[in-house]
Amino acid sequence: MEIRIKKNGAEAFVDALTKAFDTDYIRDCKEYRLEIPEDIGEGYISAYDFDYGMSLVYFHCTFHEDLTVVFTAERVHPLHFNFCVEGEIRHEICDEQIAYQLNPLNGSISANPSECSQTMHISPNIQIVHTNLQILRSEYIKKVDCDLEEMHSKLTNVFRDQEGENSFLHEINYSVPTAECIKHIAGNGYKDLVRSSYAEAKSLELLALQLKQFADDLDPETRFVTLKRYDLDKILKAKEILLSDLQNAPTIQDLAKMSGVNQQKLKRGFKQVFGKTINRYLRDARLEAAKYMIMDGKSSIQDVAERVGYSNRGHFARKFREKYGLLPKDALQANSIQMSKQKEKN
């Protein structure tokens, strides 16, 4: 089955699929949700239209037959940011002049001239979890024009190409923070305006993460080097080791031995995958755990500090205030007041 998308935007995208599938979609504020009919496949497609020419399409579905989606759009095509979470998608630009495959943790930034199209090929009986963020440059540049000068010239030129005169493709292997952002968009449990506002905020975060990674990829010092599956598994194992015992976390040297990878590869790979150094990740995990213990209200500040690996209460308090803007004792007091008010209401 081939579906041609002749207009830009989320509503136009879902409307074209709805007609092809002979079904209906549901609108909730800025969201357009399409449940895949049983004779076509299963799952759903959720799409949003935001301000300043930004749209988001999220696929979580499986199709019984091959599906080809061709973005012919209007005179000027949007800039596409793709993120493959699960499954595989073949992506072509300008009738296979540029072609590649998106696999899990693969992403791309792409653009094409007005006379060309972008095409996504989805194979049958494979679950697809994929996010497509679209930016209509002539609209979005009104919001960010003054900021473009601070970006790398390659990306500045892509954004300023408002008439869609040039092709562009940058392939990436996106990080865990990016994957978590996509997960938050997919798991959005809010309704109405809150739901669409949350989705828009997370979409902007997703865009920011992608732009930052693009800049990092162009810098030899921070370039994301593709990790082998074996090395990625070791780095993920290192994360689990850190989280398994926050009170007695190993040194980086010991962590490398326990996870089976050398220190340099572990440090570089960990920062690539999680967007933080090992020490920063551990500190944030400890403070996050401490926050929930304090909210639970069953432990003293001293006990909380020790359970997350801080032997010095004063040092713990300083780090907590740096991250959350208030001291642990103030957080405990505020939480106690909130719980008391809640009990009175009940």
Automatic annotation (TrEMBL):
InterPro entries annotated for this entry? Answer: Homeodomain-like_sf (IPR009057), HTH_AraC (IPR018060), HTH_AraC-typ_CS (IPR018062), PchR_regulatory_protein (IPR053142), Tscrpt_reg_AraC-type_HTH (IPR020449)
What domain of life is recorded for the organism?
A: Bacteria
Q: Which UniProt keywords are given for this protein, alphabetically ordered?
A: DNA-binding, Transcription, Transcription regulation
Occurrences of domain HTH araC/xylS-type (ranges): 236-334
Q: Name one GO molecular function term.
A: sequence-specific DNA binding
Its recorded name reads HTH araC/xylS-type domain-containing protein
What species is this protein from?
Flavilitoribacter nigricans (strain ATCC 23147 / DSM 23189 / NBRC 102662 / NCIMB 1420 / SS-2) (Lewinella nigricans)
